[in-house]
Amino acid sequence: MKSILIALLRTRSRSAVNFQKVLTKYGCFVKTRLGIHDGVLNQCSDVGLIILELVGDSKKKKELARRLNKLPGVTAKLVEITLKK
């Protein structure tokens, strides 16, 4: 099974610090992290998309998603995919 957490930050400039604090607490469960935002240089977007590949305890993964969803301006969704046999 693969566990992917997708998070959308609507107010990236205000949410990023607290978002990072939560990720740091759960850092041992993050295998891969990809951050995407629109715009570059002086046209930087305030919307960001973070994709995390998670490993470990299912309870901790759900807890991480719940904690991120409590942050203002953040929407997170945990997706678990099982390979077909």
Main sheet specs: 4 strands, antiparallel
Number of strands: 4
- Distance between the amino and carboxyl termini: 12 Å
- For the largest beta sheet, what order do the strands appear in spatially? 2-3-1-4
Overall tally of domains: 1
- Choose one word for the global shape: globular
How many alpha or pi helices?
Answer: 2
Oligomer state of the chains in this structure: single chain
Taken as a percent bin, the fraction of beta residues is: 35-45%
What is the mean pLDDT?
Answer: 92
Level-2 CATH architecture:
2-Layer Sandwich
- Report the structural category: alpha+beta
At the first level of CATH, what is the class? Alpha Beta
The name CATH uses for the topology is Alpha-Beta Plaits
- Helix coverage percent: 25-40%
Radius of gyration: 13 Å
What does this structure look like?
The protein has helices at 12-25, 58-69, and strands spanning 2-9, 30-37, 48-54, 74-81. The chain has one domain (2-81): ACT-like. Chain A, domain 2 (Alpha-Beta Plaits). It is built from 2 helices and 4 strands, in the order E-H-E-E-H-E. It has a 4-stranded antiparallel sheet, covered by helices on one side. The model has no long low-confidence stretch (mean pLDDT 92).
Topology (elements, then pairings):
Blueprint lengths: L1 E8 L2 H14 L4 E8 L10 E7 L3 H12 L4 E8 L4
Antiparallel strand pairs: 1-3, 1-4, 2-3
What keywords describe this structure?
85 residues, alpha+beta, four-stranded antiparallel β-sheet, 2 helices
